[in-house]
Design a protein that fits this description.
Elements (H helix, E strand, L loop, with lengths): L3 E6 L3 H11 L5 E7 L2 H11 L3 E4 L8 H11 L4 E6 L4 H9 L4 E4 L4 H12 L4 E2 L1 H14 L6 H9 L3 H11 L4 H8 L3 H15 L4 H10 L7
Parallel strand pairs: 1-2, 1-3, 3-4, 4-5, 5-6
Length: about 220
């Protein structure tokens, strides 16, 4: 199996160097290039065609979100992960709408970052659990189009009791391990339930499940 080829786009050279050093310790990773701004990053991405791009949001010149749009346009098969200090739910929502496959915070640990990169390279969306909670909270604060009683009943009829319990855990931003511990089931069982929820509701990520639960009145049992 070939290595996962990674491009780093961040205006802080010290941060890039540190991340590069950490990633190069992984046998299945190859850091193919670096860029200090969006314009340079776009140029390197189109020539290097990496599998995964770690992209900062706050950069001089071309912003991270503008860079993201151009990268997704030029390299639709590449997994672009936002790696940022920004904990703004609005920026997460915008990044996802622009085609980011992930949104991670720079204070995360190395194991979580490397795991997220592998998942993103395999086509899975990766969102920091903390950001999931913030996004859901934003939906609650600004109001949502809560489903009618009839629609809510229809949605609930498609989900098992256990799946609804897991949805509530996802609204809190719980990891699979935390959910498994709370519900006293195997972590692999939680993964299967999450996949079933995604399939039944035609969603693609844990964040979408959480937001869906709030929008449709499924975030908490009556």
């Amino acid at each position: 199996m070939s290595n996962i080829r990674i491009l780093l786009i961040d205006d802080h050279s010290l941060f890039r160097s540190g991340v590069k050093l950490l990633l190069m310790r992984q046998d299945d990773f190859e850091v193919v290039g670096e860029a200090a701004d969006g314009a340079e990053g776009l140029k390197r991405a189109t020539s290097l065609k990496p599998d995964v791009i770690l992209l900062d949001l706050n950069m001089p010149g071309l912003s991270g979100l503008d860079t993201l749009q151009l990268l997704v346009q030029e390299l639709p098969d590449c997994a672009v992960i936002i790696l940022t200090v920004s904990e703004e739910a609005a920026e997460l929502a915008q990044a996802l709408s622009y085609g980011a496959r992930g949104y991670l915070l720079k204070n995360m640990d190395v194991e979580a970052l490397t795991s997220a990169i592998r998942k993103a390279a395999a086509g899975e969306p990766v969102i920091d659990n903390q950001m999931t909670v913030k996004l859901v909270e934003q939906f609650r604060q600004h109001g949502t189009n809560v489903a009618s009683n009839k629609e809510r009943d229809e949605q609930q009829s498609r989900l098992t009791q256990r799946e609804r319990e897991i949805m509530q855990c996802l609204v809190r931003g719980d990891s699979n391990k935390a959910i498994a511990r709370e519900l006293n089931v195997a972590e692999s069982t939680v993964k299967i339930h999450v996949q079933n929820i995604l399939k039944k509701l035609d969603l693609t990520s844990r964040v979408q499940i959480a937001v869906y639960a709030v929008e449709h009145g499924l975030a908490a049992e009556e």
